[in-house]
Each structure stands twice: as structure tokens, then as C-alpha cells.
Amino acid sequence: PLLSRIINVQDMEETAKKLLPYKAMAYYASAADDSITHIENARAFSRFFFHPRVMRAVSGCDTSTTMLGHKTSIPVYISGSALARLGHPLGEINLTRGAYKTGIIQMVSTNASLSYGQIASARGSPDQPIFFQLYKHKNDETAAKRIREVEALGYKAIFLTVDALVPSNRELDTRAPHYLEDFEKGVNPQHNSQAKEGETEILGTAGGLIINNDVDMTWERTIPWIRGTTKLPIVIKGIQCVADAVLAAEAGCEGIVLSNHGGRQLDYSLPPVELLYKVRKERPDVFSKTEVYIDGGIRRGTDVLKALCLGAKMVGLGRAFLYAQSAYGEAGVVHLARILQREIKFGMESLGVRSIDQLVPEMVERVDWQPA
Ligand code: FNR
Question: Annotated catalytic, 357?
């Protein structure tokens, strides 16, 4: 369909799923076990309702904000997701160019399907901010080399993923016919993969990617170690309970992402918006110590605004951007960002705010019933 027929995030997802090769669709769409967390990530937003304010001047409403000090046109970033080339030959470059055109920020996965240098070179200008998502290699030297490489290439932050270090059970992906050649097509030689024939068939696409991850990371050892290798800000991606949010803030991390990897890792991990609500209630001090982001299940401008009211600085989308670039390349990424911008602006004006910092906890209420 014409891009102009795509009017919301859901349309983008449905269209891309029809266009994608089955294997790519299965890798992108898959989630852990029974997909309870994946489904609830999105559904949980429907338990939060607004208290819009009226009679508040809203002309000139501004959707822009900052993330780690970098300006962004909307409070939405592209969350690092592996193997964009499974969906489109230009893969991650579509995301970089689309991000530039719309003024949003891209996080690049360790398991990107183009080299980190190729992606950095696709920036529209040298000061277009891009962030790096790190799966720390179990060998410290290899990991340090990678961190130094991306820092030298101009990446502006390290997002250390801590929630998906071991293979998980993604049955859609596992059942899809899978061969080593398909896997290699999407593979950038720099990441942690070292799949052997047979292994990837059993584990699905993801299994081949995580073989060399450091599964022995700790707060005491790993954060100081990364600090010692780079000057870049460190963000922990994959916080799933209040206690770890506190530990990350106390460890001095510049940011945390409340995330369960889009429901792809441990089924029954709490939906991030529910966790955000809990952190707000139990440990509001976390928000003054570190920037808090969430990802998972965000499909609407109202989802974004609920998260911001509860204290999130930014929200990330994973699958939606993969789908957009798969179906329409760079233009799809631009279109998706504009859809979100329009929904966010409309939502802000209707809530009675004209700037992001006017979104406050009093504007949302959690209900204990599930809307139909
Ligand atoms: C991911 N995600 C992810 N996260 C990460 O830190 N490193 C990675 O390489 C990947 N790879 C990846 C591949 C695919 C196909 C998906 C769908 C996701 C997780 C991603 O960054 C993000 O946390 C979730 O996708 C957010 O959920 P939604 O927006 O997809 O619902």
C-alpha cells in the first residue's frame, strides 16, 4: 500500500508482516514462551487513564526534549534491534537517515547487520547523535576494543544490555525454517556471533547471536570496568525490578532503560509501564539520580505521554522501526516518526501542556480494571 495509507503504528506493523520474508517476520515478531509479557507490554498502557487539564494555553506546543543532553524532536528513540537487513537491503542505514530527517535518535545494536562505521558514515551530519547498544563480549579485551572503536566513530553513549545474555525460548522463530546461510546474510562480522552449523537451527536466529556474551557481569566489576574504558555515558538497558533500578542509579549510571527486551526474553517479566509506575511510587528518588527510559509495547502517542507523565525522560520503540524500514526503507522511518510526532502533539495539546516538562504524575491514574 501507499505510505500515505499507513496512518498509525499498527498499520505499519501489519503491512510489514505481510511483505517480509517469513523467516524475517518470525525473527522480528517473536517473543518468549507464550508471549504473555509481549502482549501485556502493550496492553498495560490501557490501564492508565489521563486527567487532562483545560483552559491552559497550548499554542506553540513543543514536542522536543533531550536525551543525555542531546536534542530530539520527540521523546521517542529507535531502540537498538539486531539484523535490520533481514527486512531491507539498506537495513540500519534506513534508520540512521530517517532519524536524521526527523531529528530523532538511533541506538545501534551490537548485532547490527552493517558495520558500526558504515552506519556512522550514513549520518546526515557529524553531530547527528547515535548511541551504541553493547552486548559485552566475555573477553574483556575484545569488549574494550569494541567500546573504543564506537567511541572513536562518534557514537555518543553506551547502552549496556543486561537482560538478554542467554538464549531464550522464541517458538515462532524456532519453528521457522532456518539455515546458516540466512543467518550469515544478516550478519556483521563485528558482533558476538560465532554460530556453527546446527546451532542456529536449534536456537533460531537469536541463538546464533549471543554465544559470546559475558554472563558473569556484576555491578561491582562491570560498571567500573566500562568507566575505565570510555568517557561515554553509560545506560543500563533491561532493568526489570525496582531494586535494580536503585542499584543502577547508585552505581552512577547516566540512564536506565526499564525494559524486558520487548517480551523476547523472560515471559512474565513485568510490563515496563507497570514497573515505571512502581518505581515512581516506591523510589521516586531514582528519577533525580538518573535519566529513566522505558521501551516495550509503545504503539501510540498516548503511550508515550503516559510514560512521560510517570517520569520517563524518553521511550524507545524496537519492532515498529524495524517494520517501517523493512516495508518502506528510509521513507517508512520518516513516516513512522511523523505519525508519532502528530499523535504526541495532539495528546499534549489535549492534556493542556505546551512543553514536555509540564507532563506530571498527577495527569495519569492507574485503574485496577482492564479495559476491553
Ligand atoms: C530487539 N531488541 C534488542 N535489544 C538489544 O539491546 N540488542 C539487540 O540486539 C536487540 N535485538 C532485537 C531484535 C529484534 C528483532 C527485536 C524486536 C528487539 C530489543 C529492543 O531493543 C527493544 O527493547 C524492544 O524491541 C522494545 O519492544 P517493542 O518496541 O518491540 O515492543
Answer: no
Per-residue pLDDT tens for 170-219?
Answer: 888 888 866 545 555 555 555 555 444 444 444 456 666 767 899 999 99
81 CA distance to ligand 1 centroid (A)? 4
Buried/exposed code over 136-158 (b: 16+ C-beta within 10 A; e: otherwise): bbbeeeebbebbeebbebbbbbb
- Gap from CA of 144 to ligand 1 centroid (Å): 23
Q: How far apart are CA 142 and CA 176, in angstroms?
A: 32
Sign of CA dihedral 365, 303, 352, 370: negative
77, β-bridge pairs: 105, 316
> Grid coordinates in use for 304?
508515550
285: CA distance to ligand 1 center in Å? 28
Residue in 163, 182, 244, 295 annotated catalytic = 163
How far is Cα 170 from Cα 31, in angstroms, rounded to an integer? Answer: 5
Q: Is 163 a catalytic residue?
A: yes
Is 135 assigned a catalytic role?
Answer: yes
Length of the chain: 372
Concatenating the DSSP letter of every residue in 168-222 gives ---HHHHHS---HHHHHHT--TTSS----TTHHHHHHHHHHH-TTB-TT--HHHH
pLDDT, tens digit, for every residue of 25-72? 989 999 999 999 999 999 999 999 999 999 999 999 999 999 999 999
b/e code 57-94 from CB counts within 10 Å (16+ = b): ebeebebebebbebebbbbbbbbbbbbbbbbbebbbbb
